[in-house]
Specification:
Elements: E1 2-6, E2 18-22, H1 27-37, H2 63-73
Parallel strand pairs: 1-2
Amino acid sequence: MVVVGNGAPVPEVPEGVRTIELPENLGIPGGRNVGIEAFGPGGTDLDILLFLDDDGLLAHTDTAELCRAAFEADPSSASSASASPTRTPASPSAATSRACAPRTRCAPPA
């Protein structure tokens, strides 16, 4: 796991989590690309990639494991998968946006 501070200080993280603190904000795509490259050129050392921005919260503490289990159950879905839990701290009662892998198996986010 890697946490990228995209132009901001990296908070304290659990042992074993890598951190990268960028001196300037590269924007969402730039920060994500730095995180991907931390796992080899083009993320070659990755099996699963999960992005969580600073304004999002995971609905469950085991979200990463749930994603891994889904991909292990159906490896063909990995090439077209996305999961986007987006409940913001400013609006905890807001509906959670959700996308499933592959998109043709789920209804579009509400």
